[in-house]
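Chapter summary example: a protein plus FE2/S2 (inorganic) cluster.
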Amino acid sequence: MSKLDSKVPKGPLADKWSHYKSHANLVNPSNKRKLDIIIVGTGLAGASAAASLGEMGFQVKVFCYQDSPRRAHSIAAQGGINASKNYQNDGDSVYRLFYDTIKGGDYRAREANVHRLAEVSGPIIDQCVAQGVPFARDYGGLLDNRSFGGAQVSRTFYARGQTGQQLLLGAYGALSRQIEKGNVKLYERHDMMDLVMIDGKARGIIARNLVTGELERFFGHAVALATGGYGNVFFLSTNAMGSNGSAVWQVYKKGAFFGNPCFTQIHPTCIPVHGDYQSKLTLMSESLRNDGRIWVPKNKEDAEKLRHGKLKAKEIKEEDRDYYLERRYPAFGNLVPRDVASRAAKERCDAGYGVGETGLAVFLDFSESIARLGRNVIEERYGNLFQMYEKIVDDNPYEMPMMIYPAVHYTMGGLWVDYELQSTIPGLFVMGEANFSDHGANRLGASALMQGLADGYFVLPYTIQNYLSNEIRTPRLKTDLPEFEKTEKEVKDRIDKLMNIKGKNSVDYFHKQLGKIMWDYVGMARNETGLKKGIELIIALREEFWKDVLVPGTTAGVNTELEKALRVADFLELGELMAMDALNRNESCGGHFREEFQTDEGEALRNDDTYKYVACWEFKGNSQHELHKEALDYEFIEVKQRNYK
Amino acid sequence: MDLTLKIWKQKDSKSKGRFETYKVKNISPNCSFLEMLDILNEQLIYKGDEPVVFDHDCREGICGMCSLYINGRPHGPDKAITVCQMHMRNFHDGQTVIIEPWRSRAFPVIRDLMVDRSAFDKIIQAGGYTSINTGGAQDANAILIPKVDADMAMDAAACIGCGSCVAACKNSSAMLFVSAKVSQLALLPQGKAEAFERVQKMVETMDKLGFGNCTNTFACEAECPKEIKSWNIAKMNREFIAAKMCSEKRKEANFAG
Ligand code: FES
């Protein structure tokens, strides 16, 4: 398949990126001014790319659906950002970070991309410090590190429990500087509706102005998406309310391939669900697993009593507690990767040892750390997280162990991109969580921030030039060209169709049902029968949606229900593709767990002979998707069974 | 619990607004305030009305998008928390709850409870950053930063830009917001090179955008969901005066040299 050329440079792994950089085509300064780049999304990837390209002299247009670029959901990342600085002298290196990431991803990521990610991890920290990001420091004034799941070194840099916020505000500052200089034009409260293609290339977008309700046309010599993940297909997730998969889905329908859509990360440490009015789930940073120990009672009777409030966690004796992660995985203990920790929690709860009112929770206990380190140390490390927990749950985690349960958090799958972050549509680039590239079947903690900033600061600004160097003769195209008209008309028709259904049920009604189908059949554990059932249910729900959804108001002015309806309409299609992909992949790997494929001990059983590939889906019309495969050849590392024991 | 809600409704920035009264029933104390509004909105949609429009996104107290003025207080009755994290256990059965948008000349209403806070972005654009380009930064550990400075910078940097300080202030002053950024960067060696220019440009922009003056009542500090401290304002004032004096001197010195 010629379309699936990964464009990985030849040569030794460690030289690929520097070789690429020295040989890729550049655009000279006077031509940069004549080239327009559209960037959709202002999270870590989008903001950093827009800032860097603006600094280089390109004319950038940047879009976000929020009222300010500073609010993108990268801001909510708590724990930290990985970099192989080896400041702690514990033997870290670029190779180790690369290796841990490939292994953590269960050998389903592309070697060359991941190595590049590890290479640029160090410069990211340098860049952020120079921007005034207040990372945590030790008493000597040097940067502090903590350890995170899936690693045996301390390579995670952090700014209290608000690392994502601080990194994003750094990138937002850099972006703001370019806006002030006029190199970047900001379009806030704008939602991308569709991609405009001219002669087979990405040439612009149609966006909806969320204040006026009008459709607007924008031209770009290239378009880059940094629109995040699609975890909200599950309705309940740790994503922001507005996080959506629509930009990604619309370009998929225009011909961009979708890589590994079924790879979803279920984060082990979230606050458990408490009622059907619940609108989102709150994450408790994985860093808590550094000092917290996870357990459930050894005896079912105790679990029963806990559920009915007849017993308190503190009253259960040490010998009656099952620290199941430490028991099953002595080498990594509470710091096993996320997929392993999540599944182990589900296993205990399904077996009847779960706690909390619903029985769908496990304990995360700090009593030992508090005794060992003192309350003030724990407070300094996690104070704001403890406070957040207390506000939401109304329980004091210094006194009582926290209760946690896994929740949908991140999607490793995304638009397929080559080494240059270009999709199968020429001129359409994809960064950050929106692409599929670096995390394989499971992402390690503190690696999302690293990837977002790597793509935005250090990768895309180079690779996009290689494409744009051939575009210097393309003038700025007018947006009254027929292609713009036609695409805008399609968008308008879609909106009118939704508005005119005037059915009986609200958008949330459908979204909640979709979420339940996804969680039950395409969630943490999947099987063939369930997936087939899930697909049927999604199709039926989608038909019902298009007959019966009720979108109040008009298309003019602010209409938040219309915004939601457009997003849910796309989720109703994307969910089906996720299930199809999960059904196709007859193996368990990383976050994708197929019940039919597990070892005797209940660990994921990969099938490297048949499935060592990226599943790349191509849209072929309503409910029709064609599978292409990008083989994953591991040239430089040995593929092994993951072992955290 | 059952509640009576009096909510500000306004079609767009040009229309006149008014209070509407709604009732919600059987609200769980474990429900968040915004989830209570979701329940109200579902009710309205099913009745054939339009829902109440309000800004929100992360619903975990960090994006700064939610912005409701509840019973006369930004983000409602609980301390040190955004409205999206505030739970209904802070209210009691039968209570009347008045919900308004942020009120400030610099934050015009877009619709209902949604306001335009782009003035904050403009202030940051005026200088809330260090002027360095991507690439070429020196090693992150090359400059030692005393832990207390890093910690204080972090305290200031925790601002989420929600605008509650402006909403809380009788003069609609943005001093707490602006000073948090000014002092974060002034505390760190990386921000020092431009500290004087920064404070002058940011304060000038703030004044131009229609924010009021600070009269030291510190309602901003009391209502800030992230507990940003008013010492930042003191620090900014010091920076501002030093900048005024110093920039003249520096210019002279440069000409002389
Ligand atoms: S919605 Fe993000 S802070 Fe409240």
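Key point: The CA atoms of residues 236 and 244 of chain A lie 13 Å apart.
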